Amino acid sequence: MAVTDFLAASDIALAINACKAKDSFSPKMFFKTVGLSKKNPTEIKRIFTILDQDKSGFIEQDELQLFLQNFSKGARPLTAAETRGFLLQGDSDGDGKIGLEEFSALVKSS
Question: pTM for this structure?
């Protein structure tokens, strides 16, 4: 399963290009640009499953740092500041990781 099974390659390219500069990544803008915010709960769960590389049921800090590379192999890693910001926006219960419900809520708020 790949993100291109659910999202258009052209939308992914636009979103990746929009955040090429360091410290320019915004999760909500990215989700909106790739079209994820328009997807149904099942599709959002499938994307979450792809992003949860270690299959722990959560997206942890190390997985967030490599977030863009899940969408495009040549994409840059997120900076420490972007990773912290992403975690702060998505981790509503303060456990240091983003679960499916938190991810879905963040996507839908974009």
Answer: 0.93
What 3-state DSSP class applies to 87?
A: helix
93 in a known ligand binding site: yes
Q: In whole angstroms, what is the distance from residue 103 CA to residue 110 CA?
A: 11
Do residues 106 and 31 make contact, with C-beta atoms less than 8 angstroms apart? yes
Q: Was 103 annotated as part of a binding site?
A: no
- Residue 54 in marked binding region: yes
Mean pLDDT score of the chain = 96
Residue 71 annotated in ligand binding: no
| Residue 56 annotated as binding site | yes
The CA-to-CA distance between both ends of the chain, in Å, stands at 24
